[in-house]
């Protein structure tokens, strides 16, 4: 169950990271509220996951999921560059996440 909490926490991290772009400096109410709710949900789920997982593994996987998802959505939604080097680095992060899962 801890890994499910951790994946959900990572997905909420993606939500708040992308949500920050849409808050326009917290001047838009609905995106700001959704972003804040995603932040709270992300940290709460991370806390639940860390009851059973090592903190180093949990935190690294949480930030890795957030990093990969945010980078990919930045490419898809926000028109950020999808260079070969950038995609290769995203692939390395995914490999690290999988390695930590297998080593846990």
TrEMBL record:
UniProt KW Transport keyword: yes
GO cellular component: plasma membrane
Any Pfam family: Multi_Drug_Res
SUPFAM superfamilies on file: Multidrug resistance efflux transporter EmrE (SSF103481)
Subcellular location(s) per record: Cell membrane
Membrane-spanning parts: 33-52, 59-78, 84-103
Main location: membrane
Keywords from the UniProt entry: Cell membrane, Membrane, Transmembrane, Transmembrane helix, Transport
Entry's Gene Ontology BP terms: xenobiotic detoxification by transmembrane export across the plasma membrane
Keyword Cell membrane belongs to the record: yes
Its membrane topology: Multi-pass membrane protein
GO function term, MF aspect, one: transmembrane transporter activity
Family per similarity comment: Belongs to the drug/metabolite transporter (DMT) superfamily. Small multidrug resistance (SMR) (TC 2.A.7.1) family. Gdx/SugE subfamily.
The protein's name: Guanidinium exporter
Annotated organism of origin: Microvirga thermotolerans
Gene giving rise to this polypeptide: sugE
